[in-house]
């Protein structure tokens, strides 16, 4: 059973990726839908109990944000798969302005400042890098080796 944890800036394309790749196979756990941490945790528990694959579709900018889902998912015996959904800051900012439900620019700036890329030592079984191009998604293994210099 699979728990997929997205991380990416606001308007990077996470919900679009969910719709394109996971809509028919995975439940969607997202704060914009559920509104409170209690409801989010309750839905995640139902997924564990019913062995339902799910995607966490939140910005999840830090390891601590991701650990909220990753640790219980591992304890429940789920494979944990991370996706870094990456768009340039400028691209995310302009997509944000173009959509009907915009988020405040300060929220995007704050997430960009705090953002830490997901890493294997957080406990992921797989890590993928998703970028949206004009011809659709490019999804590749996430490079996690540190830069040489
Ligand atoms: N490949 C793409 N090319 C152009 N626009 C795109 C692309 N992918 C997504 N968008 C648009 O960018 C906007 C943001 O996408 P989306 O809602 O998927 O982002 P998100 O990461 O879920 O954001 P949030 O964290 O705020 O929920 C949407 O209006 C969407 O239609
Ligand atoms: Mg979204």
From TrEMBL:
Keywords, alphabetical: ATP-binding, Nucleotide-binding
Listed GO MF terms: ATP binding; ATP-dependent polydeoxyribonucleotide 5'-hydroxyl-kinase activity; double-stranded DNA binding; polynucleotide 3'-phosphatase activity
Pfam families with a match to the protein in the record: AAA_33 (PF13671)
SUPFAM superfamilies, per the entry: P-loop containing nucleoside triphosphate hydrolases (SSF52540)
Keyword Nucleotide-binding carried by entry: yes
InterPro entries in UniProt: P-loop_NTPase
Keyword Membrane: no
A single BP term in Gene Ontology: DNA repair
PANTHER family assigned to the protein according to its UniProt record, in alphabetical order: BIFUNCTIONAL POLYNUCLEOTIDE PHOSPHATASE/KINASE, BIFUNCTIONAL POLYNUCLEOTIDE PHOSPHATASE_KINASE
Name of this protein: ATP-binding protein
Source organism per UniProt: Solirubrobacter phytolaccae
């Amino acid at each position: 059973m699979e728990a997929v944890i997205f991380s990416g800036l606001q308007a990077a394309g996470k919900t679009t990726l969910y719709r394109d790749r996971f809509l028919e196979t995975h439940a969607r756990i997202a704060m914009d839908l559920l509104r409170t941490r209690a409801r989010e945790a309750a839905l995640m528990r139902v997924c564990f109990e019913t062995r339902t694959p799910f995607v966490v579709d939140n910005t999840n900018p830090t390891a601590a944000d991701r650990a909220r889902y990753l640790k219980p998912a591992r304890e429940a015996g789920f494979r944990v798969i991370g996706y870094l959904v990456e768009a340039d800051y400028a691209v995310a900012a302009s997509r944000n302005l173009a959509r009907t439900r915009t988020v405040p620019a300060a929220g995007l700036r704050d997430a960009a400042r705090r953002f830490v890329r997901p890493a294997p030592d957080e406990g992921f079984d797989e890590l993928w890098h998703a970028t949206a191009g004009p011809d659709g998604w490019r999804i590749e293994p996430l490079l996690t080796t540190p830069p040489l210099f």
